[in-house]
Structures are given as structure tokens and as C-alpha cells.
Amino acid sequence: DAGVIQSPRHEVTEMGQEVTLRCKPISGHDYLFWYRQTMMRGLELLIYFNNNVPIDDSGMPEDRFSAKMPNASFSTLKIQPSEPRDSAVYFCASSFLLGGQGNTEAFFGQGTRLTVV
Amino acid sequence: AQSVTQLGSHVSVSEGALVLLRCNYSSSVPPYLFWYVQYPNQGLQLLLKYTTGATLVKGINGFEAEFKKSETSFHLTKPSAHMSDAAEYFCALSGSRLTFGEGTQLTVNP
């Protein structure tokens, strides 16, 4: 498997524009996570899905952020409208449940570096 | 509720010295624990993990960690630091979601 694939790797956009980040999880993984990483706030969990269903979106900062998982092999994180403070690295990760007790390790993509100017 | 605490946001060691990065956790169920490393401008990479069995686990690049239930700790060690170990290290706890610590930036001085 090629691992978790994110696109684009870098995105520069103007304030007010819509931004869509994409993620392809590892085949067979039934959990998908979206994280945001900044110097100020560190690594934050935005939302996670189990079997394509959003389970916890309490980390989504505002209504401008939305995430979807239409099928097991694809997820998007959308920001509309974007603002300069959204500038960060956004990571997607996937995992699976191990023995019903907890998830095995999350496999991370390389991230999307978003710059909103 | 689950939580992970990494003691020390910055650790600095000399090349060849012992590396010790501290992690304590809180969990109501037997935990699965992980250490990740993040090099500049890269994603997080798994260093090692504890699920069940042997409490001393070995990972990549000479790192190891010991699960101590009585101390609710999972500290990461490496006997001899190398310049290439400079990175940020994250401890994580598994439940239905991964809970990450705040991260520890490791600096290795020549």
C-alpha cells in the first residue's frame, strides 16, 4: 500500500477563497482523522470518521470548516471562506481497531501546507 | 477521559548522551501507547508502540520505551544521541481515537 495520500502538498490561496484538501486513507482502515498543526497550538484533532461516519467533530474550529467522507477511500476537508489564521499544516491519518480495545497506530500522510494570504 | 502529558516541551542533549523523553498517561482501560517522531517539514512517523505483552518495546533508530503501569508512564530512551535524532517527538494514547501529547522538541548539540 502506498500509505495515506494527501493532496495537494502545498496550497497558497487568497483570503475568502474556498480551499479543499483531499485524503486517501490506507485500504482496509476504518478510521480516518484530520489534524491541524501550527506552531502556536501544536497538533489538534479536527474531526474523525469511523466507517465513513463522522464521530467527533468537536475540534472543527468554525462553521467555515467542513469534512466529508463519501466512501472508504476518500475524504475532504473544506474551508470556505478561508482566512489567514487558517494557515497551517493539515494532516490526514488512518487506522483500524485492534482487538476491540483501541486503535492501532495512526498512519499519517505527508500533510498539506496551507497558506492563506 | 484519556490524557497524555509530555514533560518538557524542549529537551537538549549532547551528541552521544542519553536521551530521555518523558510521557505520562491517564486511561480508564488498559492503554495502547505510541511514540511518533516528526522531522522538519514531514509527517509523523511511528517510532514504536506498546499494545500488550512485553513492557519494554524497541523501535526504530535505536529508541526504546518501557510501559510502567504502576507509574502510568511510557518514557522514551536512547542510550546515545545522534545529530540525526533532532526532531519533535509525540507520545500518543489509543482509545477510539488517538490522544497526543503536546510534543517534545529534541535538540542534539555537537
Q: Can you walk through the features of this model?
A:
The complex is a heterodimer of chains A (117) and B (110). Chain A is mostly beta strands and 117 residues long. Chain A has strands at residues 5-7, 10-13, 19-24, 31-38, 42-50, 53-56, 65-71, 74-79, 88-95, 97-98, 102-103, 107-108, 112-116. In chain A, strands 2, 4, 5, 6, 9, 12 and 13 form a seven-stranded mixed sheet that branches. In chain A, strands 1-3-8-7 form a four-stranded antiparallel sheet, with no helix packed on it. A two-stranded antiparallel sheet of chain A has the order 10-11. Chain A is globular and about 45 Å long. Chain B is mainly beta and 110 residues long. Chain B has strands at 3-7, 10-14, 19-26, 32-38, 44-50, 56-58, 64-68, 73-78, 87-94, 98-100, 104-109. In chain B, strands 2, 4, 5, 9, 10 and 11 form a six-stranded mixed sheet that branches. In chain B, a hairpin with a 4-residue loop joins strand 7 and strand 8. Classes of the chains: A mainly beta (117), B mainly beta (110). The interface between A and B is medium-sized, with 24 and 23 residues.
Brief descriptors of the model:
heterodimer; A: 117 residues; mainly beta; seven-stranded mixed β-sheet; four-stranded antiparallel β-sheet; 13 strands; 0% helix; globular; B: 110 residues; six-stranded mixed β-sheet; five-stranded antiparallel β-sheet
List the helices and strands and how they pair.
The complex is a heterodimer of chains A (117) and B (110).
Chain A: E1 5-7, E2 10-13, E3 19-24, E4 31-38, E5 42-50, E6 53-56, E7 65-71, E8 74-79, E9 88-95, E10 97-98, E11 102-103, E12 107-108, E13 112-116
Parallel strand pairs in A: 2-13
Antiparallel strand pairs in A: 1-3, 3-8, 4-5, 4-9, 5-6, 7-8, 9-12, 9-13, 10-11
Chain B: E1 3-7, E2 10-14, E3 19-26, E4 32-38, E5 44-50, E6 56-58, E7 64-68, E8 73-78, E9 87-94, E10 98-100, E11 104-109
Parallel strand pairs in B: 2-11
Antiparallel strand pairs in B: 1-3, 3-8, 4-5, 4-9, 6-7, 7-8, 9-10, 9-11
